[in-house]
Design a protein that fits this description.
Elements lengths: L16 H13 L22 H5 L28 H5 L6 E7 L4 H10 L5 H13 L8 E4 L4 H7 L3 H13 L8 E2 L11 H8 L3 E2 L10 E5 L2 E2 L3 H12 L4 E9 L18
Parallel strand pairs: 1-7, 2-5, 5-7, 6-7
Antiparallel strand pairs: 3-4
Helix pairs in contact: 5-7
């Protein structure tokens, strides 16, 4: 049963008077603002570093979406396995992409805090939310694999944000967490590049040092956010080339895309 603490629509809980006094004293010395709106958070903390109002503002993905890439579709009552034209014409290397929320405020502030604010505990919060919201769709996976950072970027950041999500998520799902991928080379941040440059940037960026660890397995590939999906596509391709039987990609947030109004042929990751 999903933990209601992580449900986006959880009602605020009023603490007893003694706890409210403790909150005020703690915040007088060490204020902890909500990552979304800046309001003070209770001393006991808050899921995702967000107040109740900001958690309620987290935007779920539309139900009518491509079964592979999660792109919203301007249609109703589609079959559960319906794929958009781009995924039918040129499917990504992963078998499907799952995301809990649309990557827009206040989720963007949570991800920035995890990646750049050294708030690594947010990885555990995101893992709990993913396990509660999507566990019914993750059956059949054998291992959890985080998308790796190049060692220089990991050294500068202090940790890999995808691993901070993947390891506690593996615990929730009762699966081993496997560091199966490595970065061949350092690449410029994807957020600074356009789509074509993102694809070129990641070409042959990943490798699987020990293919025997993934051969024949269904892998759950975990990252924080999917924008064009180029990173997940390249990482899944490396895993498939090493012998993985299937790859399900999982992220906390999917960058909002305009619904695909028609089914014109296209290439995966582009508008269709």
């Amino acid at each position: 049963m999903p933990d209601p603490l992580y449900a986006p629509d959880s009602p605020p809980v009023t603490p007893p008077p003694g706890e409210r006094l403790l909150d005020r004293l703690v915040h007088a010395l060490l204020p902890a603002p909500c990552l979304g709106c800046g309001r003070p958070l209770p001393a006991r903390g808050a899921p995702l570093g967000l107040c109740a109002a900001c958690r309620a503002a987290l935007a779920p993905l539309p139900r009518e979406a491509c079964a592979v890439c999660c792109r919203p579709l301007a249609a109703h009552a589609l079959p559960a396995d319906y794929r958009c034209g781009a995924c039918r014409l040129s499917p990504p290397a992963f078998d499907r992409l799952l995301a809990l929320w649309s990557y827009r405020p206040p989720l963007d502030a949570v991800v920035r805090g995890l990646k750049f604010g050294r708030l690594d505990y947010l990885g555990r919060h995101l893992a709990a939310a993913l396990a509660a919201g999507l566990s019914d769709r993750l059956g059949g996976c054998d291992r959890v694999v985080p998308v790796p950072l190049h060692w220089r970027r990991r050294l500068a950041r202090g940790y890999n944000q995808a691993e901070r999500i993947a390891r506690p998520l593996a615990g929730h799902l009762g699966l081993p967490c496997l560091s199966a991928l490595s970065r061949r080379r350092a690449t410029p941040p994807q957020s600074l590049l356009g789509r074509d440059d993102r694809l070129a940037n990641l070409r042959k960026a990943f490798r699987v040092p020990d293919p025997g660890r993934v051969r024949g397995l269904h892998l759950l590939l975990v990252d924080d956010v999917a924008t064009t999906g180029a990173t997940l596509d390249a990482a899944a391709a490396a895993l498939k080339n090493a012998g993985a039987a299937a790859v399900t990609a999982l992220v906390a947030g999917r960058t909002p895309l305009e619904p695909a109004a028609g089914e014109r042929p296209g290439v995966w990751g582009q508008s269709v």
